[in-house]
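USER:
Class, as today's exercise, take the chain set out below, and explain how the chain folds.
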Amino acid sequence: MNLADMLNYADIGQLTAIAGRYQCDCKRNSKHDLIQSILITLGSREFMENHIRECAPEDLRFLNTLLFDERSHFSLEDLLAAARQASFDALPGTGGGYREMVARFKNGGWLFNGASLQGRYLFQVPQDLKNRFRERMGEFLKEQVSPSAEPAIYRGEGDMLAGDLLLFLRYVKENEPELNQEGAMHKRYQQGVMNAIQISEPLLGKGGWKFGYGRAGEHYPPRLALMVDYARHRRWTSEEGQRLKLTLAGETLLEQGKSEKLMQLYMFWLKLYKGAIPNLPSLVYWISISAGKWVTVASLVEALGWLVKPFYYDDAASILEQRILRMLLHLGMLRLGETAEGPAVMMTPWGLEAAVPKQLL
């Protein structure tokens, strides 16, 4: 439902609170006057622009969470969890807590009581407000990003990941790599894989914080780790007697020589990384909005860093550069080049298409 519909269903208490919040000039005892005044105020372009520019980062992250959530109704517990996730850099206890944040958005016309389910009130966000917030937020972020000249040489991996997945499976079939006590291939086999595929990566050294990005992320560089985890997920490989082997399903896939669709690999990657980066789909979307043309990586990291929650020893910049941009390159969604201003990126046509979650279509 849109804002006008939700205002019609709202009680006069909430309408009065919204009108008071925005200092609407209207008769407070007339529901019709209240609704018309609120619609005029919240419907203006100036309102959304000012809201985004003046909001605290945690408030914008809260709205961002609701915008990219596939659900249309939220329980109070859902909203408190979203508020908690959005407040990662606020001091504990500041701003009156998470309940106060939810109340503030209710009194601001962003949240309305919807259906009741088993005695619990469910809340909704007006669809037209979500659409306008998304459009203006995209414009706001693009304003923060610096354009770049097209690099003389740039790197794009296209669908090489899908091709390398088959080459990885072929290597497993032919070599049945030995596994160590932790269930990972010994380094000589890892290097053998790198020699067999199109895109090679440096093997992991000792030390460093590696968990949180899939089971294989602790043992292999990111691109190989994604292939290893995906092959296990699809049950194309199995670990038998300290060796990595192909299953019957893996053998059949190799015989068919059929490459996996990049969209399936992309969706798997989103799920694999969601523990460490809960708002990953929204970050990919905002990258696609900001980098439709060549932009500098430094300005992109500066513009989006406040949306990223650090994960242990991974700060916002390293998460954006190494965990997201680098993997988008491997997924064929991004091109990367070097210019006089430093690294620059641009989304590919397929990346622009894939980055839009289904709930925003």
Q: What stands out?
A: The chain has a mean pLDDT of 94. The radius of gyration is 24 Å. DSSP finds 17 helices and nine strands in the chain. Residues 83 and 309 are 13 Å apart (CA to CA).
